[in-house]
UniProtKB/TrEMBL annotation:
Residues in Thioredoxin domain copies: 33-189
Protein name: Thioredoxin domain-containing protein
A Pfam short name: AhpC-TSA
Keyword Signal: yes
TM ranges: none
Organism encoding this protein: Prosthecobacter algae
Entry keywords, A to Z: Signal
Signal peptide boundaries: 1-36
């Protein structure tokens, strides 16, 4: 079912309470169906080295996919470093930071970093935001003269299915490490 078919429906314009309930249910169903259609496996290459990450290799752990904005985004880099510094306290979570730029833009950015900086910045390539599109990350956010997707964290459970999603409203609105840790603890309860 295509979520775009429902864009013309407005709960504000609907006056009948039963119709509002039906429309609300339909919109939630469309959102659930679109979330369920995420990729079962993918592989992304390192932007700062020669390695790669494959979702299947992380089976049995949580995977936090952080869809960042652009390589030159200082807020993205602070967000990445904060999560990496504190990440050791969540041994059951693999954190993957994804840059949506073209390969050329990423290579140019990597060329400006020294070796120490590269080691502190484990970022993966999502050329032209292909993985972001596969995960249906919303776009339309204006950033430095370009239209990019919103900053998003998608949490994939140990079974390989999406279990949580946080969509930021702007560049500074990110899922903090503390909130990620709380969500993982909540989802890990028997």
């Amino acid at each position: 079912m295509d979520g775009n078919k429902w864009q013309g429906l407005s709960l504000k314009e609907t006056r009948h309470p039963a119709m509002k309930a039906i429309l609300s249910s339909l919109l939630l169903l469309v959102a659930a169906v679109s979330n369920a259609a995420t990729p079962e496996d993918f592989t992304v290459k390192s932007a700062t080295g020669t390695g790669s990450f494959s979702l299947k290799e992380a089976k049995g752990k949580f995977v936090a996919l952080h869809f960042l904005l652009k390589t030159e985004c200082p807020v993205c880099l602070r967000h990445t470093r904060d999560h990496m510094v504190k990440g050791a306290s969540l041994p059951n979570v693999v954190q993957i930071f994804l840059k949506p730029d073209t390969d050329k833009e990423i290579e140019s950015w990597v060329g400006k970093l020294d070796k120490v900086e590269l080691e502190k910045t484990p970022i993966y390539r999502d050329p032209n935001a292909k993985l972001a599109k596969a995960f249906d990350i919303p776009d339309g956010y204006a950033f430095h003269g370009q239209v990019v997707h919103y900053p998003v964290t998608v949490l994939i459970g140990p079974d390989g299915r999406e279990v949580f999603r946080y969509v930021g409203k702007n560049n500074a609105d990110r899922l903090s490490f503390e909130k990620l840790a709380e969500k993982v603890a909540e989802l890990s309860k028997p």
